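#onboarding

Welcome to the new folks! Below is a worked example of what a typical request in this channel looks like: someone posts a single protein sequence, and someone else replies with the predicted structure as tokens. Don't worry about understanding the tokens yet, we'll cover that in week two.

Example request:
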Amino acid sequence: MMKVGIIGCGNISQAYIDGIRRFRNLELAGLADIDRKAAESKGAENSCPVMDVEEMLSDAAIETVVNLTVPKVHAEVSLQILKAGKHVHSEKPLATALVDGENILKEAEAQGLRVSCAPDTFLGAGLQTCRKLADDNWIGSVTGGTAFMMSMGPASWHPNPFFFYQDGAGPLFDVGPYYVTALVHLLGPVKKVTAVNTMGTAERIAGHESVKGRRISVETPTHLSGVLEFHNGTVITMVMSFDVAAHGHSPIELYGTRGSMKVPDPNTFGGNPEIFTTDSNSWFSVPWSHGYGTNSRGIAVADLAAALETGREQRCSGKLAYHVLEVMHAFGKSSASGRHEAIVSTCERPAPMAAGLMDGDIV
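Example response:
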């Protein structure tokens, strides 16, 4: 069992605590937060030891630390973890600036350590079933597709909506990693991006009871529309928005030479894959071919532990996360320049998950 610590005890931490305890190759060794009270509250709730950040980083028994801090300090904290000689799994995005993402990968290589990064939802039943359908040629060669995440954003309901509208967040950096990662998992790396970014309003009003009526300054684009060309030739139209009240699009659709596929929401582990084939001439649902259809946050940490055991690449690799980060930055660059933006980085498609795993196992 790999001993794991968590830094950051905010909203997402409970899902990670539950997920880490779900897998037989992981042991949750402690919780830490810059706000000691937040860590103590979460520790008491889960009967888990609480540590200072420095104490966790100096604990030789803890091999991997999960970084659940806010996006603007992801890079700073991940570098601290690596410099302490520990593997890191970070919440998405890997960093907000490309240079910081590069520094994380360089530090990990220098230290002989691994970097893993969310999202890990593509390891769940819904997207793994879609991967199998694609690999087994159910819809033929994929030539095009769409990816849509459009809503009015978290201002009306989130207890801390402010950072969602700051630089390094917005719909693309907050939710986009799920979509871009799912697409790279299904299609391989991105070759170039063309995009136009806009901002609906310069201010939002918080709606959650705890912050109701407070003004939210919007400092980042809230409607981003782009075209992604993949190295395999597929062209995907992608829209990420916090400016849309309602729409009728599927989260992701893929169009192939033999049919089409509706891919479930990549922000979930489950969902209902559907395909249309030229033979059937109709849409039909496909049962899951893989496990982990419920919330399985932390599955990437278990995958990291399994990868370290066997020497293989972890599926949620730092290279994948950096490639996704570069793709997202390309939206802003293309919008500003009015030109295609070539993607310099590349990565391998993550290996598909094994089918038939018992809950709590991973190989």
